[in-house]
User: What shape does this take?
Amino acid sequence: MVKLLTKMIKTLKEQPLLHDQSLSQTHLLPTQQDLLAAQQDATLERVPVETSEWFALWFNSPIYLKLYEHRNFKEAEKTVETILRYSTIQARCASPKVLDIACGAGRHAVAFAEKGCSVTANDLSPMLLQEARRLAEQHHVKLTFLQKDMREIDFSQDYDLVVQLFTSFGYFEEPDDDKRVLENVYRALKSGGIYVLDFFNATYVRKNYKPLTKRMLDGIYVSEERKIVGDSIKKVITLVENGKLKRFMESVRLYSHTELIEQLSAVGFCIVGILGDYDGALFDPDSSPRVIIFAEKA
Assistant: This one.
């Protein structure tokens, strides 16, 4: 093991800098031979790759936060400002009650609280909820925390605004489970309440996704392999750290914006607007990276 790690360090020092345009920064990458050697020599700690409950495993792994650390609080503040401005929810209610479904590490929930909202932060992951508590303490705001599968949320006419951000939808093997989530959201909203669903633009993803990216992240080798399988995009994340190899996966259904609108309308929502990015640009089906739908409960 020591010889292997020595070899990898030596290779990294001698290897030229490689630039990955998708990451917009420079990283040192181990060679394919080093990775194969690590896979053969390492103590394998594999998380099963093919699992319908991938989100329960991956979102409770500390490396998840490192992998998406570029999604920072400043971006969350901009997103929240766009949502509040476009929804005009604060014009109707000075301190709206907000439910953040799949809140993750709490950056959006905290940003909403700083804008005067009363926020419930919900997530399935105990680790992410702990991070959200820590962030709330740092920003001196009060949040209500809820650990629950989004399919099991059972509020009734409690919220003025429900948000589901950063593509936290379409995770389940059965489409009926996604419908169940939308029904839960509809029930949780007060009459006239707004649901904001932030999803990737499937058309944009199909045109622009990168089948493979590699990088070094705080001494961890990270490989992300992406593939469109049927109506979903799947990603296998391979990590090598200190001679140990782990694998996780992500799988998200590639709902088009029209399919999302149809599903929301079927539940009873009225679509009041669609944005194409976090700055508030109007949605363009071909070029917008996001589909940010504003739907009102009748």
